[in-house]
Amino acid sequence: MTAQKVCSVDELSPASARRVVLDGVAIAVVRDSEGAVHAIGDTCTHGDISLSEGFVEDDGLECWAHGSKFSLTTGAPLNLPAYEPVPVFAVEVLDGQVYIDPSVRLAV
């Protein structure tokens, strides 16, 4: 499988996330406060909630429902109540466009 274009970097505000579905896989595309783009599984492992509706803080994405925060680089939960990680996907930015390959998991 190859990477698919999901949006332009300009469509992602700093410290924001958006949900995309690629080949049936829900992914949160996140631009952290420093401008780096990340792609992690969009479903909180604690409560089956969309993480893209949550809050981007530092290197994490926090679930709005119960407060679990997940690392944008490893997918590991950074606090309870979640204890299972979310997947992290390969993301590439080329000419201002964001590409994700849902078949390439960097973690989990």
UniProtKB/TrEMBL annotation:
Domain Rieske: 4-100
Membrane spanning stretches: none
One Gene Ontology term of the molecular function aspect: 2 iron, 2 sulfur cluster binding
InterPro entries the record matches: Rieske_2Fe-2S, Rieske_2Fe-2S_sf
Keyword Iron among UniProt keywords: yes
Protein name as it appears in the record: Non-heme iron oxygenase ferredoxin subunit
Entry keywords, A to Z: 2Fe-2S, Iron, Iron-sulfur, Metal-binding
